[in-house]
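ok so dumb question maybe but i'm new to this and my supervisor (M.) told me to 'just get the structure for BnaC08g43890D protein' and walked off. so i did the thing. is this what she meant?? sequence i used:
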Amino acid sequence: MFCTRYSNNIFRGAMIEHWKHMMSLGALLFELLSEALGLSSDMLKSMDCMKGLFMICHYYPPCPQPDLTIGTNHHSDNSFLTILLQDQVGGLQILHQDCWVDVSPVPGALVINIGDFMQLITNDKFISAEHRVLSNRTETRISVASFFTTNLLPNSTVYGPIKELLSEENPPIYRDFTLEEYTKGYVKKGLNGTSHLSYLKL
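this is what came out, is it supposed to look like this??
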């Protein structure tokens, strides 16, 4: 699946090219992540982790009083993996050991975020990145986020912790779920700084 918001003829070609590059990079990343888990390189792809790619272009205008607002609230992504292309303005922060840390833009670099679905199926081997975006007083910020998720497609697949990762010493932390079930709860909760992962814990 390929989905863009507010696409038109002016930049549709560029977005399609970007989508092709993201699919290629995503395939490589899912192979590397599978191997890092000690699994076959095609394990995550065989679970349809990259079946859907949803892309959103973000536009954050300057805010004269950035201390009174925030660009995007504290949250983690309801995806398997998110690839972010950001400009040089900055504003992205991740939560690390209860402190907000700037993710300073690096020319030519992409930001890779683990999403909630990946944390669930890997039984906390990989942890989703809690993040937010700050407003900027004088500059406009633009970014393109590519979410590997099938939650916008009809999908009755039941997901749960990958059985090959479980043992007596590493029992399942989460119950089985469908992406539709998780997404409905995630959207209802909103970006309020609390993780929806806790609702699926055993």
